[in-house]
Amino acid sequence: MLRRIIFCVSLAGVTTAAFASFEMMLLPQSTGRVLRYDPVNQVSLGSFQSLPTAAGMVTIDPTTSTAFSASSTAVRSTNYDNGIHNWFASAGVRAIAFDTFGGVNLFALSSNAVTRFNSQGNNVSGVSLPTSATWDSMAMSGQYLNIFGRDSSNNVKAIQVNTLTNTATSVFDFGRVALPGTTIGGMATFISPQNGFHYSVAAFINASGNIEILRALKSVQDWSTTPIFGSQTISTGFSNAVVPAATPSHDGFYLVGHDSTTSTTLRFRQFNSIGSFTAVNEFTLAAFGAAGVPFFQVANIVAPEPGSMLAVGLGALMLLRRRSR
Predict the structure, then answer these.
(1) Measured between alpha carbons, how far apart are the two ends of the chain, in Å?
(2) In the chain, N or C: fewer CB atoms in 10 Å?
């Protein structure tokens, strides 16, 4: 009995060590393939074909190992473990987001509307957005879609859609101006483990040509009262030919974009989530491929934290002890 308990506890420890910091990014390429990449160990894990032309955007349903890839004209659902396709739909797309609130819906953003697709790839409903802005970037936060865009004077705007009621808030103003002809980059939403705030972050190119990180934060996910909006300029290193994309990490987010000197190299910068974001890690991936899409959105599969894996191990131990009685 003692040996079995020692083995189970050891297994929990090994499992925790093995999976505590695991992450796998899905990176869309101009060839239409999607690269699997481990940013923690900086290792490529193979790729799969998603679309016949350039795939600029990816989001995920980790519960079913499904990747949703999109170009400006189409969306495809693919199992990211084995590369088997599920469905394909034609749609004008600027950003995509999967329903993380327990549904099976994929949301696709056009310039002035959000379209809802069901698990078979059928267009089942939609929400119109104010035409006072062109909407570029979107991510789920609970039952809400947080969306960033620009008006005709390039002022950066934000809006939130409640996916349960299909209603939108009023339009909020960031107080920032984007460089004409540019878009807002792929958005990340996450809860800070340090302060518990709900963050929505995305990069854009400001009127001076520098890359800034936009952030909207609240103690709750609902934007029925105004969030705190802010931004900060980051140091050079990224090309502004395609705006870098944000994606969550274990304790903050990554900014992923093409390198400013070598167009076929992808640059990763990891930020913590404490107030004003601080870069804590940076690395590159060579020979990724040149930027070939106007909208760039990446996804990151984040493994459970150490505490979660330890709980799994301890649960197994308790079951073993009960059976021994």
Answers:
(1) 11
(2) C
Please enumerate in sequence order all residues whose Cβ is within 8 A of that of 22, keeping only pairs 6 or more positions apart, or say none.
Answer: 38, 40, 303
> Are 187 and 95 in contact, with CB atoms under 8 Å apart?
yes
**Cα–Cα distance for residue pair 77/87, rounded to 1 Å:** 5
Please give the model's pTM, rounded to 2 decimal places. Answer: 0.86
Locate 111 and state its tokens. 């310039």
Ordered DSSP codes for 100-156: TTS---EEEE-SSEEEEE-TTS-EEEEEE--TTEEEEEEEEETTEEEEEEEETT-EE
* Mean pLDDT per 10-residue section of the chain, whose length is 325 residues: 44 42 89 94 94 89 92 92 93 89 83 90 89 96 95 97 93 96 94 89 95 94 93 91 92 93 94 83 90 85 56 38 44
Q: How many CB atoms lie within 10 A of CB 224?
A: 11
